[in-house]
Amino acid sequence: FLEVILATNLVLFIPLLLLRIATRLYATVQKQITHNFYIFQLLNLFLGDTAFPRQIADHVIKNAMRGDVTSVINVMNQYCHALKSVGMNVGDAKGAILDKCFLEASPQNVLELGCYCGYSALRMGRLLKEGAKIYTVEGNPDFADVAQEIITFAGMEEKIQIVRGFSEKVLPTIAAKYGVRTFDFVFIDHAKDLYERDLKMLEDLGLMRNGTTILADNVIYPGAPKYLEYVRNNTKYDCTTYPTKLQFRENIDDALERSVYLV
Ligand SMILES: C[S@@+](CC[C@H](N)C(=O)[O-])C[C@H]1O[C@@H](n2cnc3c(N)ncnc32)[C@H](O)[C@@H]1O
Ligand SMILES: [Mg+2]
C-alpha cells in the first residue's frame, strides 16, 4: 500500500518539478532574449507562452460588452486578479498612475513599446483626445493577434494601431510609415534590458520633441537599473518616480519612472 502511495506521489511530483524548473528557466532566459525573434518563437512553441493571452481574449469575448472599452478593461482586471495572474498587463493600480501621467501630457501621438494583450493601450485609448492616435509595438505575432482581437472587440481599432515587429526593426521606419513627426507620450513596457537602448534610439531618430513624456513601467521589478541611471543622471530628462506595487502581486515593490524630455 505504501509503495502505491509513494509511486503515485512520484508520478505527480516529478512532472510538477520539471514544470517549475522549465518555468523558472523560461523566465530567466526570456529576460535575455526577448529581442531575438527566433529563440522567442522556439520557447513559445515548447512552453506555450500564448496560452494565457488566449485565455484572456476568450474570457473578454465571453464576459465583456462588445464596443465598451471600460467593460473590456474591467473584465481583464477581474480575470487577472482572480488568477493571481502571471499576466504582464500593467494592471489597475499601476494603470491609475499611467492614466494620471497620460492625462497630464494630453498627447496627440502616443508610442507604446510592448503591447502584449492590449490592456495598457486600451487604458490610454479610452483617455485619448479627439483625433489622437496610439501606435503600440509588439514583437510576438501571437500576442499581436490576441491584442488585435481584444482591441477590435472593444471598438478601439481606429484609435489604436498595432505595429508588428521588434522595436529595433520597426522604430527606424515608424515615423515615415504612419506619417508621424514626433511622439508626445511614450509608454515603455517591453523587455526591461532594452529600455535604455530603445530610449537612445528614440533620441537618435528624432522621435521625441521638447516636452515629450516618457513613462517606464517595472523600473524596480523586474527592474531596469541601467535605464534609471541613464535618465536620472541626464540634464535632458526631468524625472519623477511613482513607487507602487507589482500588478496583481501586492507584496512586491515596483515603480514607474516619468521622464520629461528637455531639448
Ligand atoms: C510587459 S508586456 C506589455 C504589457 C502591456 N504594456 C500592458 O500593460 O498591457 C511586454 C511585451 O513586450 C513584448 N516585447 C518584448 N521585447 C520586445 C521588443 N524588443 N519589441 C517589441 N515588443 C517586445 C513582449 O512580447 C510582451 O508582449
Ligand atoms: Mg509592465
What is the strand and helix layout of this fold?
Blueprint: H1 2-33, H2 37-47, H3 51-63, H4 69-82, H5 91-105, E1 109-113, H6 119-125, E2 133-138, H7 141-153, E3 160-164, H8 167-178, E4 183-188, H9 195-204, E5 208-216, H10 219-223, H11 225-232, E6 237-246, E7 249-261
Parallel strand pairs: 1-2, 1-4, 2-3, 4-5
Antiparallel strand pairs: 5-7, 6-7
Helix pairs in contact: 1-2, 3-4, 3-7, 5-6, 9-11
Bound molecules: S-adenosylmethionine and magnesium ion.
Magnesium ion (MG) binds at residues 88, 90, 189, 217-218.
Describe this structure in words.
α6 links the parallel β1 and β2 (133-138). The protein has two domains: 1-47; 52-261, Rossmann fold (3-Layer(aba) Sandwich), CATH 3.40.50. The chain has helices at residues 2-33, 37-47, 51-63, 69-82, 91-105, 119-125, 141-153, 167-178, 195-204, 219-223, 225-232, and strands spanning 109-113, 133-138, 160-164, 183-188, 208-216, 237-246, 249-261. A seven-stranded mixed beta sheet has the order 3-2-1-4-5-7-6, sandwiched between helices. The chain has 263 residues and is α/β, with parallel strands linked by helices. The chain binds S-adenosylmethionine (SAM) and magnesium ion. S-adenosylmethionine is lined by residues 34-35, 88-90, 114, 116, 119-120, 137-140, 143, 166-167, 189-191, 194. Magnesium ion is lined by residues 88, 90, 189, 217-218.
